[in-house]
Specification:
The chain contains seven helices and eleven strands. It has helices spanning about 50-55, 60-65, 90-95, 105-110, 125-130, 160-165, 210-220, and strands spanning about 15-20, 30-40, 40-45, 85, 140, 150-160, 175-180, 195, 200-205, 220-230, 235-245. A hairpin with a 4-residue loop joins strand 10 (about 220-230) and strand 11. The radius of gyration is 18 Å and the shape is globular.
Length: about 250
């Protein structure tokens, strides 16, 4: 069954995530800053030194610098002191990461993310759904989600798939129903959520999104399906589509 995002929600905040380049031994992703909507459009800030360990499993600003992080090109970064808030045209550098709507293949680009061409596409919603990632710089945007959402469709990348996917005896097919299972004993993330297909672990919901997804599970409002598997054999990228349907939003039988 073909699935599309039918209920697109525009978040107020996106987290900038960075993954070190291939030559770095430990390539775990880092949450390095956030982009927020405001009355004038948007503002960007880097997370301060005291916030980085909380958001990154205890890792320090020194470890971030040693991994090769030098900042996002549009916004100067100095790990030794707070950088303040960037308000001047803060949204534009991220929008430039997306293809132009005037391109002939823009509709195909939207379809890759299960977005129907022609549907209303607010800027923050488009950045959240696509991640605004480029092949070579390691940056992407992550929607931390709203645990109290009542009606929303969202595509989530499955973290850790490269560790679990190659060992599945029978890889699940695209379209398979996915189970979202809390794992509160996971070190560093009491809100950890396992992603399973027929009992087989295929990875985890991003730590940046797990608190909200845990809340959806507790409320009994979320269902999910496997919708895309790409990447390489060594580093598969697996995505699921989660649907939030509060009881008040469900049709009466």
């Amino acid at each position: 069954m073909e699935r599309w995002i039918e209920h697109l929600v525009e978040p107020r905040r996106l987290i900038l995530e960075w993954r070190p380049p291939p030559h770095v031994a430990h390539r775990s992703r880092w949450a390095v800053g956030d982009l927020r909507r405001n009355e004038d459009g948007a503002e960007f800030r880097y997370f301060e030194a005291q916030d980085l360990p909380t958001l990154n499993n205890g890792r320090t600003p020194e470890a971030l610098r040693e991994a090769g992080f030098v900042g996002y090109p549009a916004f100067p970064w100095d790990p030794r002191r707070p950088s303040g808030v960037f308000r001047e045209r803060a949204l534009e550098p991220f929008l430039r990461r997306l293809p132009s709507p005037r391109r002939s293949d823009f509709a195909a680009y939207l379809a890759r993310f299960f977005l129907r061409p022609g549907a209303p596409m607010p800027a923050f919603a488009l950045l959240a759904t696509t991640g605004a990632s480029l092949p070579n710089d390691g940056f992407s945007l992550v929607d931390p989600l709203d645990g109290e959402a009542t009606l929303q469709d969202v595509v989530l990348e499955v973290n850790g798939a490269r560790y679990y996917w190659p060992y599945l005896s029978v890889p699940p097919a695209v379209g398979s129903r996915v189970s979202l299972v809390p794992e509160p004993t996971m070190p560093h993330d009491p809100f950890a959520v396992r992603v399973e297909v027929e009992g087989a672990l295929i990875g985890y919901v991003s730590r940046l999104q797990s608190a909200a997804v845990s809340r959806w599970i507790a409320r009994g409002v979320a269902e999910a399906w496997l919708v895309r598997v790409n990447g390489t054999a060594a580093e598969p990228r697996v995505h699921i589509l989660a649907q939030v349907r509060d009881r008040a939003q469900r049709p009466v039988a």
